């Protein structure tokens, strides 16, 4: 019987010819990742069991990304635990503050490659499926086990397929395709499933936008999100891979629990209103909503292409006087590239606040927390109550073009209200 890309990766990593949905396997991991919030818990678990080594320091990534540069004494102490552990165990992929968000750094630096099996103590570890890896989030205790043994226990997920036909309208991005998906199937629509995306509209997307799609698989409950590698993936990976990679593809007769087929040319830029990523509305039905803050950043949409599109909108414009617009490049190299391209000047001239790479306001951590009753439009991935600050604040999720346009008009706006298509063509 044919296998899906997810099943093939899991079979190879568990030393089996075939695996079946529902089967329990023990798989070897290519990379175990944790951050400043979750790594200390894993480290304490290792200590509790008297384990004083990691299975392979070259296959561990520890990233200080969430509350850094330390926002208070507690976060300073969390970071200190991770720093000392990384030093002691000679962890190869240790990224201190300012290097960026784990989900941006690892694919960008070729530390995760297609065909890898990656687990991370962070729910958005699923991001790496955008380049054809199997990647999933686990709890800190599972991560501790993986750090000690190099293995993880997994139940093989059933696969669901999402096919997007057609060409995208202007200003529609990968973010809108995943918001559409979550809006259609709900936040538990893919519970413990492998979400496989394909079709012309997916093939047309850059790798960065594919990473955005896989990043939000968890918002539909998915075990992983995955897009089979193609020539664009190979080009992206060839330029940065730190190790060999392996391309897997689903067999034509692979089994799917469900297959969804959508005409991508009919999709508008979308906005997920509070308080669920599935509460999706077209931007044209959201323009009455005024905002206090706009946030461009996070592991969902803080990559260079996202900043470029935001800069296209903000160039020569001013952020609305009642809005603060916060721009946080998702990694140091995105930041440097944005500096080189003059994007940071565009943002600062427009009146944005630009910060060093960190998760920041995405999880209401620091660098832009919302007060009671305030509304923020954000390029991030979650809008639960209190996600970005006060329990009675509101977060709206959208693509970076919509967020930038909203920053200018002070209310949720379609990018074409701010920039004409001719201007878009000139600048891209
Ligand atoms: C801090 C971490 C455990 C958390 C996650 O797992 O997703 C965070 O990154 C988030 O986005 O809420
Ligand atoms: S940017 Fe947001 S979603 Fe991504 S890892 Fe950080 S807190 Fe989690």
Automatic annotation (TrEMBL):
Gene3D superfamilies in the cross-refs: Aconitase, domain 3
EC number, as in UniProt: 4.2.1.33
This protein's UniProt keywords: 4Fe-4S, Amino-acid biosynthesis, Branched-chain amino acid biosynthesis, Iron, Iron-sulfur, Leucine biosynthesis, Lyase, Metal-binding
Domain of life: Bacteria
Binding site for [4Fe-4S] cluster: 299, 359, 362
Catalysed reaction, written as an equation: (2R,3S)-3-isopropylmalate = (2S)-2-isopropylmalate
SUPFAM superfamilies the record matches: Aconitase iron-sulfur domain (SSF53732)
InterPro entries: Acnase/IPM_dHydase_lsu_aba_1/3, Acoase/IPM_deHydtase_lsu_aba, Aconitase_4Fe-4S_BS, Aconitase_4Fe-4S_dom, HAcnase/IPMdehydase_lsu_prok, Homoacnase/IPMdehydase_lsu, IPM_dehydratase_rel_enz, IPMI_cat
GO biological process: L-leucine biosynthetic process
Domain Aconitase/3-isopropylmalate dehydratase large subunit alpha/beta/alpha: start-end pairs: 7-286
Metabolic or biological pathway, per its Swiss-Prot or TrEMBL entry: Amino-acid biosynthesis; L-leucine biosynthesis; L-leucine from 3-methyl-2-oxobutanoate: step 2/4
GO MF terms held by the record: 3-isopropylmalate dehydratase activity; 4 iron, 4 sulfur cluster binding; metal ion binding
Enzyme kind, highest EC tier: lyase
Cofactor mode of binding and number, as noted: Binds 1 [4Fe-4S] cluster per subunit.
Co-factor requirement: [4Fe-4S] cluster
Family in the record: Belongs to the aconitase/IPM isomerase family. LeuC type 2 subfamily.
Subunit structure: Heterodimer of LeuC and LeuD.
Purpose of the protein: Catalyzes the isomerization between 2-isopropylmalate and 3-isopropylmalate, via the formation of 2-isopropylmaleate.
Protein name: 3-isopropylmalate dehydratase large subunit
């Amino acid at each position: 019987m044919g296998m899906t890309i997810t099943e093939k990766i899991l079979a190879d990593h568990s030393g089996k010819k075939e695996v079946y949905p529902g089967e329990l396997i023990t798989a070897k991991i290519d990379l175990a990742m944790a951050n400043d919030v979750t790594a200390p818990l894993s480290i304490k678990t290792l200590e509790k069991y008297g384990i004083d080594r990691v299975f392979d320091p070259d296959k561990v990534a520890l990233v200080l990304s969430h509350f850094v540069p330390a926002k208070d004494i507690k976060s300073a102490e969390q970071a200190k635990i991770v720093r000392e552990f990384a030093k002691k165990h000679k962890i190869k992929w240790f990224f201190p503050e300012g290097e960026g968000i784990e989900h941006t750094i690892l694919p960008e630096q070729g530390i995760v490659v297609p065909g890898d099996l990656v687990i991370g103590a962070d729910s958005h570890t699923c991001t790496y499926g955008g380049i054809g890896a199997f990647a999933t989030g686990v709890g800190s205790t599972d991560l501790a086990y993986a750090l000690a043994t190099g293995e993880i226990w997994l139940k093989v997920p059933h696969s669901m397929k999402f096919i997007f036909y057609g060409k995208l309208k202007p200003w529609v991005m990968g973010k809108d395709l995943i918001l559409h998906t979550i809006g259609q199937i709900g936040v538990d629509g893919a519970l413990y499933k492998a979400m496989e995306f394909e079709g012309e509209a997916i093939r047309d997307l850059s790798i960065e936008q594919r990473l955005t799609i896989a990043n939000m698989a968890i918002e539909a409950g998915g075990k992983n999100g995955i897009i089979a590698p193609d020539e664009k993936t190979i080009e992206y990976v060839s330029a940065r891979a730190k190790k060999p990679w392996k391309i897997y593809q689903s067999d034509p007769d692979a089994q799917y629990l469900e297959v969804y087929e959508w005409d991508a040319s009919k999709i508008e830029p979308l906005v997920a209103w509070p308080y669920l990523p599935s509460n999706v509305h077209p931007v044209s039905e959201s323009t009455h909503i005024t905002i206090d803050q706009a946030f461009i950043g996070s592991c969902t949409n803080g990559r260079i292409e996202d900043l470029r599109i935001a800069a296209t909108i903000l160039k020569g414009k001013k952020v609305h006087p009642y809005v603060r617009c916060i721009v946080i490049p998702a990694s140091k190299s995105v930041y440097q590239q944005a500096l080189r391209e003059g994007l940071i000047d565009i943002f600062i001239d427009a009146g944005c606040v630009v910060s060093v790479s960190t998760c920041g306001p995405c999880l209401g951590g620091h660098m832009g927390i919302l007060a009671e009753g305030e509304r923020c439009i954000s390029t991030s991935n979650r809008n639960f109550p209190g996600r970005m600050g006060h329990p009675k604040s509101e977060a709206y999720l959208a693509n970076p073009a919509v967020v930038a346009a909203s920053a200018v008009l002070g209310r949720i706006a379609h990018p074409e209200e701010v920039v004409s298509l001719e201007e878009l063509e000139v600048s891209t």
